[in-house]
Amino acid sequence: MSQDQQITTASGIPVDDNQNSISAGPRGPLLLQDFHLIEKLQHFNRERIPERVVHAKGSGAYGTFTVTHDISHLTKARLFAAIGKKTDTFARFSTVGGERGSADTERDPRGFALRFYTEEGNWDLVGNNTPMFFIKDPIKFPDFIHTQKRCPRSNLKSPSMMFDFWSRAPESLHQVTMLFSDRGTPDGYRHMDGFGSHTYSLINAAGERVYVKWHFKTRQGIKNLSAADAARIAGEDPDYAQRDLFGAIERGDFPQWEVRLQVASEQQLEDWEARTGWNPFDLTKVWPHRDFPLHPVGIFELNRNPDNYHAEVEQVAFSPANAVPGMGYSPDKMLQGRLFAYHDAQLYRVGTNHQHLPVNAPRCPFHNQQRDGAMAVNNGGAAQNYATVNATGSAPRGMGHGEPELALRGGAGRFDGRGMEDDYTQAGNLFRLLTAQEKLNLCANLAGPLSQVSDEILQRQLAHFDKADSAYGDGVRAALNMK
């Protein structure tokens, strides 16, 4: 508001004095009847909503997605209906493990969350700047995140907690290798790629399903920080990535990403699994580009900064469950867990009616029978608050949005693939892709925290490096000796 506008209470009642409390005489005490004072202090005490358990510190911006290539044969989703079609978007980038006051340059995966405000509702693609993850079963997610946070006794970050978990979970090695490479400290948010990471599905007008992986390739070029520069900037400018993104958009240097897609039929994935032994729905694995090449789809651009950080960036509430007609899920266990966990987290963190907030509200009409609760801004008016029952039956087909039925295999139970699945080949492939200098950097970055763990944990972790590539283990040992 401008300086000359009338101050009011939140209910719009004019405030005649915003400088002095109502007191019993010039020196007080204060009177409870000063509602403006009470309201002002009450709101101040409640200015902070609970921070996200993960992805607490982030930056966001609005933009557009423009279709450049026709994929209407793969999906009936209307946002892809025609080349040149534009859809409004919102993006939030974040560090995963740190608190809201942490440094932007910490070694950490980066969240890469996108919202598309389509005419059929919001589509949320909630990914990272890495195509894989540390675990493959969501039942281990709380345990894993606890190891990345603070020790309950010392309240300090603990390399022992981290590597005790990783060394007992060999499936984490692929992502650990990515995290401790140069890509673990990207140079801001504009110079990193993004990935949907999970396997999703697309459904066309004929009801045919294909499985896909989403990729966002930065048009600014990949740029990473050395470990030394990342540590220096953390002290000099802990908001480095926020400043870089906000400043670029303010001066009209709009960042862009090329949207690409890996596509496979169910039969292709079955054949690939039979040949490689890799589960295509395992989040700790990637689909190699030589087997599943990238296909261009469009351009994602960020071109407008939010007007209010809290209202838009802090309160934006993503969920991978938000999929529009023409899109679907997959048997990826981690995705299945996130379909529940994200929306549940938003209900706790922001509120029951968080979808009513402008940044979360769809840009198309919406109708349901949800009523009441906190922040019921759009409470349905006089409309009926229940759905009538069709006494003659509704003849359901498929799972939703016209998605065909998903074939299930085997009986229900708990299944542990440890010792029976290949957790090393892809991690070794990633190591072998690195240049000689990048390999030295990776080993040096690992040697820092590994020099602080017990010998038992160290030997367990070194054994994983050896199985991925003997040069990997030798390189870490050499870096530890130097340290």
UniProtKB/TrEMBL annotation:
Record's Gene3D superfamilies? Catalase core domain
Q: Is Kinase found in the keyword set? A: no
Region Disordered, annotated ranges: 1-24
Q: What class of enzyme is it?
A: oxidoreductase
Report the cofactors. heme
Q: Which reaction does it catalyse?
A: 2 H2O2 = O2 + 2 H2O
> Could you tell me the keywords of this UniProt record?
Heme, Hydrogen peroxide, Iron, Metal-binding, Oxidoreductase, Peroxidase
Enzyme Commission number(s) from the entry = 1.11.1.6
Q: Which residues form the signal peptide?
A: none
Listed Polar residues bias regions: 1-23
- Reading the lineage from the top rank, the first entry is Bacteria
Where in this chain does the record put each Catalase core domain?
8-395
Family per similarity comment: Belongs to the catalase family.
Stated role? Decomposes hydrogen peroxide into water and oxygen; serves to protect cells from the toxic effects of hydrogen peroxide.
Identification of the protein by name? Catalase
Species of provenance: Massilia rubra
Give the classification, highest ranks: Bacteria, Pseudomonadati, Pseudomonadota, Betaproteobacteria, Burkholderiales
